Amino acid sequence: MTLRDDAHELQGELAVLRRALHQEPEIGLHLPRTQEKVLAALDGLPLEISTGTSLSSVTAVLRGGGTEPGGGTEPGGPVVLLRGDMDGLPVTERTGAEFTSRIDGAMHACGHDLHTAGLVGAARLLADRRERLAGDVVFMFQPGEEGWDGAGHMVEEGVLAAAGRPVDAAYGLHVSSSSYPTGVFSSRPGTLMAASAGLHVRVVGAGGHGSRPHAALDPVPAACEMVTALQTMVTRRFDVFDPVVVTVGTFHAGTRRNIIPDDAVFEATVRTFTPAAAERVAEVAVRLCEDIAAAHGLTAEVDFVPEYPVTVNDAAEHDFLADTVREAFGEERFAPLTDPITGSEDFSRVLDRVPGAFVFLGADTTGDPETAPGNHSPLAAFDDSVVSDGSALLAELAVRRLDRLNSLAKEA
């Protein structure tokens, strides 16, 4: 039987795990219940398991039989890393699913429950083939992707050396509730996803009575002007062929309609595709907000905080991934992605250090991915029938890449 056949045999169990994870989403770096479920799902497999110290991560190493004395490769063979993120979002679910979130204000609105279950499936598939693996596999179960830099924490704690030697190649997968037909994989070589940064602004004025604005220093109009000016900044200060996206996601000021507040606070997410654009927007956006505040006789406390770098697929690894999808699933199951997307990913931390590739997998439940609610929506729904194919692809990538790396080592 093929890996895909074996994965489909696991589909029912993986769907049960996914739904259990979905009902108890956890946010951030500390996911004790999620970690417990992952450890239980991996129990009994021939894995070397360790957990994080600064976060609820799980790192599992599978030693290929070929790396042992007398095996098919020299001891200390190649290493492949497979990653699945595990955290949810601070979103109140409105899908109406029978396995809807039981945690108020938390939801797996980005499909990380499918990623976790899929990586468990890959671990099971590869454990069954351990004696034939031409190297070792590191399974990276990661918390805190949603703005907490969980991948960065895991890299600092040594996930890339978990097998005792550096990782040679790394792969990750992300499901989408919209944009792609169900079961279709999509990616591109080179730049795949944007870098992200946070712009945090506090406009400081002097409060007073709403009927006498001349006797106060009102921060609200100035802050509103900044929000509008940031959009003009994007269209007038940056090259349209090196795009920048600025979205103000929070804006807070005041307590009642007849009180001028002391301050107004807003936060924006900034997306860029090149280091030059990221450096320039940091300079221009900060100065813009400070100057507008000064023009109103106010001050502005502005922080520009870099978050995740650009996610870049190694060209050769992308081609290897695309060929693997076509050979294992069929030509129609891979759709080349024409343009990068403005979402960001902390798997970029891994791809900055290790050749590898990241791929999307359609999991639409509506039959019309163009209009379906997207990731992060309270209505985002994911078809968990794709979990086993995600497992199969990750396992195929590991097996094939270890074989190729081992062959290259022998030729050398």
What is the fold's blueprint, element by element?
Layout: H1 3-23, H2 32-42, E1 47-51, E2 58-62, E3 79-85, H3 112-128, E4 136-142, H4 150-156, E5 169-176, E6 185-187, E7 190-193, E8 195-204, E9 208-209, H5 219-237, E10 244-253, E11 259-260, E12 263-272, H6 275-295, E13 299-306, E14 311-313, H7 315-329, E15 334-336, H8 348-351, E16 356-362, H9 387-411
Parallel strand pairs: 3-4, 3-5, 5-16, 6-15
Antiparallel strand pairs: 1-2, 2-4, 6-16, 7-14, 8-12, 8-13, 9-11, 10-12
Helix pairs in contact: 1-3, 1-9, 3-9, 5-6, 7-9
Describe the structure.
With 412 residues, the protein is of the alpha/beta class. The chain folds into two domains: 293 residues, Aminopeptidase (3-Layer(aba) Sandwich), CATH 3.40.630.10; 112 residues, 2-Layer Sandwich (Alpha-Beta Plaits). The chain is built from nine helices and 16 strands. The strands form four sheets. It has an eight-stranded mixed β-sheet, with helices on both faces. It has a four-stranded antiparallel β-sheet with strand order 10-12-8-13, with helices on one face. The chain has a two-stranded antiparallel ribbon with strand order 7-14. It is elongated and about 80 Å long.
